[in-house]
Amino acid sequence: MIQGSMVALVTPMTASGELDWQSLATLVEWHIAQGTHALVAVGTTGESATLDVDEHLAVITAVVKQVAGRIPVIAGTGANSTREAIELTQRAKGAGADACLLVTPYYNKPTQEGLYLHHMAIADAVDIPQILYNVPGRTGVDMKPETVLRLAGHNNIVGVKEATGDLERARLLIAKAPKDFLIYSGDDETAVELMLAGGKGDISVTANAAPKLVAKMCELAIAGDADAARAINQKLMPLHVAMFVESNPIPVKWAVSALGLTAHGIRLPLTPLSEQFHDQMQAALKAAAQ
Predict the structure, then answer these.
(1) Is 253 a residue of the active site?
(2) 19 to each of 15, 59, 178, 197, 206, how far by Cα in Å?
(3) CATH number at residue 87
């Protein structure tokens, strides 16, 4: 079972937008030392939308090799083409990923039946643990709880990253899904409450900049220590908020750079964090470090 703080890892780039392999290795080692429980390579935060297929798979392979089995690696392999998602998932399995994260098909706006058939096709084609990823604010399509519950019966579909921030929906899934089906938060601000309700982790943006605190918060929340987990979450709240003052991963890439871990590299059409938000981000980083 993969649980706890699962960092939605940024993909380090140089100022010109080229992949920065040394910084990627440094980030992996830093997260392991800080107590991160798992790494998600090339999800939304990893700029999957602007990496070509070769780069996408090269980053997954590099993370797997650097981790060397010390913690699980979850590969982002979703696509709005079912055939492409199957290929990416097959190749991530071949690279040694422990599981795959599959975002709902974006832009083409499939029906609920289309979502069901899409994910069933991938699960039938590739024998690797697969985590559904529902983030309608980015994809334009919402995978309804009844569709998630239909998919939860497949042996290869092991959980869902629910990024709506809707705690009632999360509680419904926790209550009705098979007991071995894992409900993860994809919304840092509400992650503690989801875990206290029975969720098993947070696929976190904030953890890129405060991995030790997020890992401890997740451990406490999963163990049911509500007061201690909420106290850490309150300390992290300014950082949770600052991470979304502009489109993810713009703020988090600036934060990781401000911590001296990577260069200021991001690819168009995304742009560096607007100067008006720099003070807010610095204050949030400082609050989390105290």
Answers:
(1) no
(2) 10, 9, 40, 39, 22
(3) 3.20.20.70
